[in-house]
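Minutes, project check-in
Item: structure for the 120-residue chain
Input as provided by the requester:
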Amino acid sequence: MSEGKLEKPAHLRAVPTTRGYLAARPAGFAALALGILAFIVVAITQNQIGTTPDWRISVPGFALTAIAAIASLARREGAQMLWLVGLGAAAASLVFGWFVLLAIVLGVTLLVMLIVHTVM
């Protein structure tokens, strides 16, 4: 240690790596991939838009994504955006029907606002 300078603790230092961004953060990437996969599987198996998805499909997908996100946090990978997006997609798959209906309402609202703004 040099005189008068403090070194950063290990948990605050940058992750030293010569690998790519995703290769250095495997648990964060796994959380992202599992969350997107859970959302896609629920979207494919959903019978009707307004109904709640089958919990035997959506809950295990969310649980696996949460485990991968916790592993990423425990490893201190610095991949917050990866596991947050994955966990968000898996959480949206738990309430897929409501998520899709809300997305449709928001999309139509934005379209109407754009049309009104353009006309006036």
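Outcome recorded: The helical segments are 26-45, 55-75, 80-94, 96-119.
No further action items on this chain.
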